[in-house]
Design goal:
single chain, 8 helices, elongated
Length: 323
């Protein structure tokens, strides 16, 4: 950890109280000049730091930082190897490259801006510098492909629960990978697997997401203003992106650690698809029916007009219409 990073951690841990330059210098075994230089660098990066005769005081801001995320991670959450980028063409690509390079499990790539964001089936989505959370994580589960769909569902549950716990904002889930607020999309999730050909086991899973955090409604392109929104589209955020990021991963790993299917009950309760008439295309053929339930594998069960059932897996279809 660099001196600057150590100082930022100290300031955040102490906030809102002041901490003197002398005390920081003693704790970090560096000179007061080094403290002063690092403080100035942090201010240039956008961090709000007050200074007076009592020392330095950190003021909460929405600057993404590894230190700010770590401050709010639970002790039970596994150690994350966090990579923070000012911009990325795709954090999914970055995480997949990390997998190919043999980097550690639980490598988390976060970008302040995603230049070429894409969701399921390569669909582009809108990104805004400083207004969203764009991140992807590398996991090494060594599991079968049948268990793949559950990671997307677990991620959706973790995001929904984290948002509601930290902000009080109610969310809903559209099967299989979208989070909604007030009938508009605020988050999309994408999961991709890498496998061992001989064993047929999944060796790596990369889960990526784009969360609209504080984008004003008028900032969205006109053609999606009626379909998309952000968590804080019409008010000042009541928490920072660092806090929400940490809350999401705390919840995600807590669900994984329980090793049961309780998360599916939450997912079903939050689904606005179940009980609705849905339209979808499977193998090039259009279908229409009623979404009945989500099974233990995370697949959507749809009852067609003729009484037969269709089982939809996340990799095959998306819902084109919901009534």
């Amino acid at each position: 950890m660099t001196v600057k990073s150590s100082i930022l951690s100290l300031l955040m841990e102490q906030s809102p109280a002041f901490i003197s330059g002398e005390e920081m210098a003693q704790q970090l075994n560096v000179s007061r000049t080094a403290i002063w230089k690092a403080i100035n660098e942090l201010k240039k990066e956008g961090h709000l730091i007050n200074s007076d005769r009592k020392g330095y005081q950190y003021q909460s801001s929405d600057i993404l930082s590894i230190e700010g995320i770590r401050l709010h991670l639970a002790k039970e959450t596994p150690e994350l190897s966090i990579k923070l980028l000012s911009s990325s063409s795709s954090t999914m690509k970055d995480a997949k490259l990390a997998a190919l390079d043999g980097e550690a499990e639980n490598t988390l790539v976060i970008a302040d801006m995603q230049e070429a964001p894409k969701g399921r089936f390569g669909r582009p989505f809108f990104a805004s510098k400083g207004g969203g959370i764009y991140m992807s994580i590398l996991l090494r589960p060594n599991q079968s492909f049948e268990e793949m769909a559950q990671y997307t569902i677990i991620m959706a549950v973790a995001i929904s629960e984290a948002i509601e716990a930290t902000s009080g904002i109610t969310t809903e889930i559209k099967w299989v990978n979208d989070i909604y607020k007030d009938g508009k999309k605020i988050c999309g999730i994408l999961s991709e697997a890498m496998s061992d050909v001989e064993s047929g086991q999944i060796t790596n899973i990369v889960i990526g997401m784009g969360i609209n955090f504080s984008i004003k409604q008028e900032e969205f392109p006109k053609d999606i203003q009626e379909k998309a929104t952000s968590l804080f589209s019409d008010q000042q955020p009541t928490l920072t992106r660092n806090e929400l990021i940490a809350a999401i991963w705390n919840r995600f790993y807590a669900i994984l650690d329980k090793n049961n299917t309780d998360f599916l009950d939450y997912y079903r309760r939050k689904s606005f698809v179940l009980g609705k008439e849905v339209t979808f295309t499977q193998a090039g053929t259009p279908f229409n029916g009623t979404a009945e339930t989500i099974n233990e594998q995370g697949e959507l069960i749809v009852r067609l007009k003729d009484g037969t059932q269709k089982i939809l897996s996340s990799g095959e279809v998306s819902l084109s219409e919901i009534k």
